[in-house]
Amino acid sequence: MSRAGRAAAGGTTVAGTVVTGAASAAAARAAYRTLRQHPPAGEQTWTRTNHRGELVTLLEGPAVAVGAIAAEVVGAAVAARLPGRPGQDQLHFSPERTVGSHPSLAMAVAGGGALGFGVLDDLAGSGRRRGLKGHLGALARGEVTTGSVKLAGLAVTGLAGGLLIGGRRSDVLVNAGLIAGGANLLNLFDLRPGRAVKVATLSAGLIAAGGAGGPDRSAGLASVAAPLGAGLALLPEDLAERAMLGDAGANALGAMLGAAAAASLPRSARAGLLAGIVALTVASEKVSFTKVIERTPALRRLDMLGRRPAPPAVAVPSTAAAAVPAVEDDPPDAGQVIRLHGRRGGRHRRVGTGEDRVRSINWLFGLFFRALARQEP
Fold first, then answer.
1. Coil, strand or helix: which one is 130?
2. Which of 9, 47, 94, 375 has the least CB density, counted as fewest CB within 10 Å?
3. Which residue, among 230, 285, 193, 295, has the nearest Cα to 62 in the 3D structure?
4. CB atoms closer than 10 angstroms to residue 40
5. Are residues 172 and 242 in the same domain?
């Protein structure tokens, strides 16, 4: 192809990328509006308390996932009908892709599978087991948690996506790890408003830059357009603490970004990225990401960008502080589930209204100040 032909093709790809991102954002906003007006199983099913003890909705997560998946599927279908151009599913983003690979279908499968298992954990998880160690340890003792079911589901979803993207057997395994590992890792950052979406945005930028070294310089950007557009569309709701991604949204965004990396990055970059994902996941079992961010000025500024100011310091009575258990991990941002007809469920311990909710907020503040005291020299 001549230089002019490559430039024209690149311009078309960039234009298509912008359209895909805009369509994804519009679809996510429309899905969020529809879900808020007609929440499945009622609004309280999706209501949680955040790190401040305020009520937020989990419907942001399904809306983000639905918007990104819809834009990816529609974009691939439209591209396939354009005259003189192959469909997006036949675009070999990485020079190592094989004939017959289906990156767009892999993105949809990754996002859809992660969404389904994330919703299961959001609505049916107990929150008594956390992290890989907690869920796998429970499984070793014969206890099947929703978290362990989700981990198995993400592994199957990653393998399906890896097979759809294609490549050698080693490529399939690496790509499966990127999808499943990306889904799990991004969820670990969903502990404060907007943090997971910011991490997803930075990750999308790295994938776009990494994919720029291939034959199609805009391939990386094209691969992340749908999840990035959907995530940014609902970032204002997240930052304003009206909604949160939850497992459903964070898992779906992470899985789709993993699939984008698998479809657009060269083999060496994919292997390095997978090693980084594994290292961060293992580190999360021992290290609090929130504490690392709080202790690093640049990361803290980025984390607070667009967020409401931290709550003012409130004196906690010594008796209340003494009753707070010594917990090293972050308090779960998803908080507790509203009590609904006396039925247990959801990711964390439920709280009621009135005095129960006040006690829960005091518990959160007590935990916060005890953590600060432990950090002092």
1. coil
2. 375
3. 230
4. 12
5. yes
Cross-strand bridge partners of residue 337:
48
User: Within this chain, do residues 298 and 325 fall inside the same structural domain, yes or no?
Assistant: no
Buried b (16+ CB within 10 A) or exposed e, 346-362: bbbebbeeeeebeebbb
274: number of Cβ within 10 Å: 21
Whether 14 and 63 share a structural domain: yes
Q: For the whole prediction, is pTM greater than 0.85?
A: no
| pLDDT value of residue 126 | 59
**pLDDT value for 319:** 46
Total number of domains in the chain: 2
Rg (CA), the chain: 21
Apex CA 60: angle with CA 355 and CA 30, to 5°? 130
Nearest to 316 by CA among 349, 273, 359, 283: 359
Query: Does 371 lie in the same domain as 227?
Result: no
Q: What is the pLDDT of residue 115?
A: 96
pLDDT value for 346: 36
User: Residues 297-305: contacts with CB within 8 Å, 24+ apart?
Assistant: 302/198, 303/192, 303/195, 303/198, 305/194, 305/198
pLDDT of amino acid 357? 42
Counting beta carbons within 10 angstroms of the beta carbon of residue 342, is it exposed (0 to 12), middle (13 to 18) or buried (19 or more)? exposed
pLDDT along the chain (377 residues), means of 10: 41 72 95 96 90 91 96 79 50 47 88 94 71 60 74 93 90 95 94 95 93 70 93 96 94 96 92 94 88 93 89 51 42 40 37 43 47 44
Instruction: Check if the beta carbon of residue 255 is closer than 8 Å to that of residue 158.
Output: yes
Residue 348 sits in which domain range? 318-375
Asked if residue 88 lies in contact with residue 56, where contact means CB atoms within 8 angstroms, the answer is no
Biggest alpha carbon–alpha carbon distance for the chain: 77
Whether residues 187 and 327 share a domain: the answer is: no
